[in-house]
Amino acid sequence: MRRIVVHIDDPDALGVTRAADSAVGAYFPHAGDAGRNYTVRCHDGARIVLDVVLHSHGPGTTWAATTRPGDRVGLDHARSWYRPEPTTRWQLLVSDLSGLPATARILEELSPDASATLLVEVAAAVDLDYLPAHRGVTVIPSIGTGNGCGPSRLAQMVRDLTLPDGRGYCWFAGEAAESRAVRKYLRGLGWTIDQYDITGYWRSDSETWDARFAEFQDDVLAVYTRALADGKDDKAALEEFDEACERVGL
Questions:
Q1: Which one of 86, 188, 196, 226 has the lowest number of neighbouring Cβ atoms within 10 Å?
Q2: What DSSP character marks residue 157?
Q3: pLDDT surpassing 80 at residue 31
Q4: Torsion, CA 30, CA 32, CA 34, CA 40, rounded to 10
Q5: CB of 216 within 8 A of CB of 248?
Q6: Using 50, 70 and 90 to split pLDDT, how confident is the model at 111?
Q7: Are the C-beta atoms of 99 and 173 separated by less than 8 Å?
Q8: How many C-beta atoms surround the C-beta of residue 143 within 10 A?
Q9: For the range 186-193, what are the long-range contacts, defined as Cβ-Cβ under 8 Å and sequence gap of 24 or more?
Q10: pLDDT tens for residues 54-105?
């Protein structure tokens, strides 16, 4: 992981949110303005800190490994997802390496009396050292699985967990197919849409998925647009979009 500090020309225009999983899109000039989303690990006025996981290849890895002081990068699409409601009694946090910076910030900002279980999938045990300790958080790791190196276990880990009593909230950041499986499992338990924020941070074999998506994008994007036009919020619209993708084999 490499830490990059970015000074923002116009903080008000970017509008970085203060949520614990706040993120921005970074667009790289060297890659034809290809972009990737990154968690805002720290935010201080006109300065943001990004912790970027380095992979074997990809435009984000190339940028993070080679950028130097004075280089320029485009920033846009500031957003966040983590929104537990005040009635939440306990939290289930689920993440792989891609979500580790957001997970760390969530743990830092949890109230001292909060109760949570963290299911985290990392490449090596040393990766866990990145996470701050919290007395109310039980950490259950899976080491050496997922993260592009093998099949992910996150969805199975969620299914194997005995959930506490009371109203819970789930935040998920990991591979997209695993995010869908976790969402469907929780809905099957009777969870409502306001009890989770489940986001696919990356997609295994994305090149194949992108090619197939190009065949159906007009149809599935129309589902999303129609949901918004019907007055549904973005999270509900995205869920309908994902269901439409699944119906056509995406």
A1: 86
A2: H
A3: no
A4: 50
A5: yes
A6: very high
A7: yes
A8: 13
A9: 186/158, 189/163, 193/235, 193/236, 193/239
A10: 887 788 889 999 999 999 999 999 999 999 999 999 999 999 999 999 999 9
And the tokens for 163?
């959930």
**231 to 222, 225, 226, 241: CA distances (angstroms):** 14, 10, 9, 15
pLDDT in tens, 134-172: 999 999 999 999 998 899 999 999 999 999 999 999 999
Q: Which two tokens stand for residue 100?
A: 């580790």
Strand order in the sheet with 23-28: 34-39, 23-28, 74-79
Q: Is 37 helix (H, G, I), strand (E, B) or coil?
A: strand
Tell me the C-alpha distance between 120 and 126, whole Å. Answer: 13
Confidence (pLDDT) at 218: 93
Measured between alpha carbons, how far is 158 from 28 in angstroms, rounded to an integer?
35
CA dihedral 6, 11, 13, 14 (to 10 degrees): 40
Nearest partner of 107 among 201, 174, 31, 171, judged by Cα: 171
CA angle 66, 68, 74 (to 5 degrees): 85
| Full-model pTM | 0.93
Specify the DSSP class assigned to residue 5: E
C-beta separation of 144 from 123 below 8 A: yes
- Burial status of residue 211 (CB atoms within 10 A of its CB: 0-12, 13-18, 19 or more): exposed
Q: Is 7 exposed, middle or buried (0-12, 13-18, 19+ CB in 10 A)?
A: exposed
Backbone phi, psi, residue 77, to 5°: 55, 50
CB-CB contact of 122 with 149 (8 Å): no
Q: Is beta strand 116-122 parallel, antiparallel or unpaired with respect to 90-95? A: parallel
Sequence-distant (6+) residues with CB within 8 A of 178 are 146, 152, 154, 155, 172, 200
